[in-house]
UniProtKB/TrEMBL annotation:
Domain CTLH: 60-117
Listed PANTHER family: RAN BINDING PROTEIN 9-RELATED
InterPro entries: CRA_dom, CTLH/CRA, CTLH_C, LisH, Ubq-SigPath_Reg
Domain of life: Eukaryota
Protein name (Swiss-Prot/TrEMBL): LisH and RanBPM domains containing protein
Organism: Abeliophyllum distichum
């Protein structure tokens, strides 16, 4: 078995210092993260402090976050209205997103114990879409199954009532709005961190070096020899 090459922390830091990254590029990464994740106040402060201009109007972030918050709070009808105010084509051209929003409306009716209203809504609004799309029909059947259990904790699809389901739908809407604004739906910074982990895993096979295990501190560890 070949012996791994050992790279000291001193040598590793020297190599890192030789890599030149422009501050402007780092600032753009930070701004991209703030804009994509919807931190409008932080983005505005960062714009003033760093001189980095966002690639979209910061006012649109407030509108996008209002939509996201409405879904997370279970006010799906309000969210749909807000999306249509922003850009009616978002839902017109994305039947899967519109179905998931309508599905979330059904979930909220079930959550609030409005059984009759939920059944009527499922039959009139969701069933016709299920007839056109098999995956929609399967999701509708899973959702309606919630009505068969008085104790939803015993329901095999009870996770639909979890807050995580709202978050999932809200993230889907957020991504669709960003796409409609010709903006990446995911921030670049987390992708770069994933690439760092991937690169380290490859390098682990060939060398012992000062790797980064704690991404929050980015501290270099002594090479494992």
């Amino acid at each position: 078995m070949a012996t791994k090459k050992v790279i000291t922390k001193e040598d590793w830091e020297k190599r890192l210092n030789d890599v030149k990254i422009r501050k402007e590029d780092m600032n753009r990464l930070v701004m991209n993260f703030l804009v994509t994740e919807g931190y409008v106040e932080a983005a505005e402060r960062f714009r003033l402090e760093s001189g980095t201009e966002p690639d979209i109007d910061l006012a649109t972030i407030t509108d996008r976050m209002a939509v996201k918050k409405a879904v997370q709070s279970g006010h799906v009808e309000d969210a749909i209205d807000k999306v249509n105010d922003l850009n009616p084509e978002i839902l017109d051209t994305n039947p899967q997103l519109f179905f998931h929003l309508q599905q979330q409306r059904l979930i909220e009716l079930i959550r609030n114990g409005k059984v009759d209203e939920a059944l009527e809504f499922a039959q009139e609004e969701l069933a016709p879409r299920g007839e056109e799309n098999q995956s929609f029909l399967e999701e509708l059947e899973r959702t309606v199954a919630l009505l068969a259990f008085e104790d939803v904790t015993r329901c095999p699809v009870g996770e639909l009532l979890d807050v995580s389901q709202r978050m999932k739908t809200a993230s889907e809407v957020n991504a669709a709005i960003l796409t409609s604004q010709s903006h990446e739906k995911d921030p670049k910074l987390p992708s770069i961190l994933k690439m760092l982990i991937w690169a380290q895993n490859l390098l682990d096979e060939k060398a012992a070096y000062p790797r980064i295990s704690n991404l929050s501190t980015a501290a270099l560890e002594d090479p494992a020899v």
